[in-house]
């Protein structure tokens, strides 16, 4: 059983060097990651998901091969928290899906049971196979 609620873990979350700007599309639950390139897009609907600056690791293992560990994502929905046992230990995770099209992108590490894995808490595993990299400055209207 996890007793995380009683423990005061330090906040290890890294903040983005350039936080996403307030989006005029927030009312439609769609955010742009302007001024951040490259950007990683949902492979199905090309919604912005995360950025180069938010990627902490490119060598994580997802369910579909290599995955990114990201400090911040946008335009996603999270499932209810549930227990999951992975190769590196036990976690409480929330599945992460594209808010626009429902594409299953990966999961959020909510709590890690192992002390050595605490750095993952609050971060996101994003499957490489579920995003595409957008390197141009091209922007488009929704
Ligand atoms: Zn999508």
From TrEMBL:
Span of domain Yippee: 38-135
Keyword terms: Metal-binding, Zinc
Pfam hit, one: Yippee-Mis18
Source species, domain of life: Eukaryota
GO MF: metal ion binding
Family statement: Belongs to the yippee family.
Protein name per Swiss-Prot or TrEMBL: Protein yippee-like
Source species: Lichtheimia corymbifera JMRC:FSU:9682
